[in-house]
Amino acid sequence: MKTKNILLEIICLLLVVLFVYAATNKMFDFVNFKRQLGESPLLGDFSNVVAWFIPTIEIIIAFLLVIPKFKAWGLYASLILMSLFTIYLFIILNFVPREDIPCSCGGILNKMGWKAHIYFNLFFVIMAATGIKVHSYQKKHKIIYPTTG
């Protein structure tokens, strides 16, 4: 049972690192991030709002994941956000000429190819889903450790 708790904490930690890293990179290069969003055929018209929304929601999710009482909310939000990012990338990869669309992810994530980015995102989708399953199991069986809430 303790192994599941460790797994849950590792999953949450990796998601926190991902979201804080991504949000920080977007905010430090905000002008470029907003410009790249503006070039997206799917998000261009909403780039002003999306440019603020994405890093803000990433930071909020990171906080939810570290507060034991809100860990489940953070895991569900992680699953939803990473799924949306993955769907967006799938659409870009399959229906939009990629040479026309810059990656607006920032940092080292910006260096990934589109397919690699989809696999990267799918990895985190699976991690979030696994975290939800482990957290639900612990709640159901009343196996609550001090760090899981």
From TrEMBL:
Transmembrane parts of this sequence: 46-66, 73-96, 116-134
Signal peptide segment: none
UniProt domain Methylamine utilisation protein MauE: residue ranges: 5-132
Principal location listed in the UniProt entry: membrane
The entry's keywords: Membrane, Transmembrane, Transmembrane helix
GO cellular component: membrane
Pfam families named in the record: MauE
UniProt key word Membrane: yes
Protein's GO biological process: methylamine metabolic process
Superkingdom of origin: Bacteria
Membrane topology: Multi-pass membrane protein
Cell compartment(s), UniProt: Membrane
Keyword match Phosphoprotein: no
Protein name stated in the entry: Methylamine utilisation protein MauE domain-containing protein
Organism: Flavivirga rizhaonensis
